[in-house]
User: Fold this.
Amino acid sequence: MVETSAAMTKAHPSIPVAWQEQVALKPLTTMRVGGPARYFMVARSVDDVRQALLSARELKLPVLILGGGSNLVVPDEGFSGLVLKMELAGFEIVAEDEATVTVRAAAGETWDGLVARCAEAGYWGFENLAGIPGTVGAAPIQNIGAYGQEAADTLIAVDALERGSLEPVALAKEECSFQYRQSIFNTTHKGCFVITAVTFRLRKEGAPCCSHRSVREWVEQQAVETLSAADMRRGILAIRGDGRLPDPAHIGNAGSFFKNPVVSRAQFEEACRQVQDQLGAEAAAQLRATSFAVADDHIKVSAGQLIRLTGAAGLQRAGARLYSRNPLVIINESGQATAADVLALAGLVRERVEKQTGLLLHQEPMIAAVTE
Assistant:
């Protein structure tokens, strides 16, 4: 049952009967902040999505697509258009051979539900992405990743509605321009598509992906010769449950709020020099020790280490503060933080890091502002 405001206004005659008014969005996001949606609708089919987009266009209303609300900050004033909550359900095996299986999941399926289903069936490829909150449709947008795997590793196609024509399109992986926490869906073509389903190709045989230290240590501790995909999923859930990532069911948060900067080697060397000048040689050595080379001679820098080294980890703004176990996470522990508190704190952290290191921190969550 969706919570609605007691001050529900009288529906305008031209508003579709399936739309609700003044629906509270705070309980529909894991950050637990923000005001109401002027209009709200649950979409359970592709046709629901098409009809909602068409009606919103006729009414000249902006549309916000809502999945699990785990990567979203809703402003305190709410959203003045239509919030379309994606609850499209469905799972199917679309192809199979001796080595692989290709599966398609609807956008409204929970991400961890898909991972669990495939891992328990013995399919390998995204077991390290277990426990990530949200829906399947949100996974390609920021190319979700954790513990050495990304959605793009197994994704082969995205089904969507093109918002201009309202026609269905199928986008191959190569058309999505996946990078670290990035795709066309949050950059060059932001707002152009509504994802309705995603297709993945998984392996029937596999081995643990141990590129991340926490995973490698967990695997080494197991007293068995082989581990299944299901074993690895359970291991990842155990790692995630160690307290370094707060459970959004108990503590309001949107997961990692800041991305790890990926910079050129020259930018990295300049940052190290600036850190040494301002914070000392030991701080510069720690920055080097927690950064590593990635593609095209770039360096991925630990945002958490930048926050710690600059003293930003202790920052707080009213009801919002950085999580003590992981400064990448902004928490609304009391439930009393506002969206303004969260965004102001994020701004303070970015300002501190840029001033002392010269590096920019970019946020992961989307801000549900009206931009169209």
Q: What stands out?
A: The domain at 20-86 is CATH 3.30.43.10 (Uridine Diphospho-n-acetylenolpyruvylglucosamine Reductase; domain 2). The chain is about 25% helix and 25% strand. The chain has a mean pLDDT of 93.
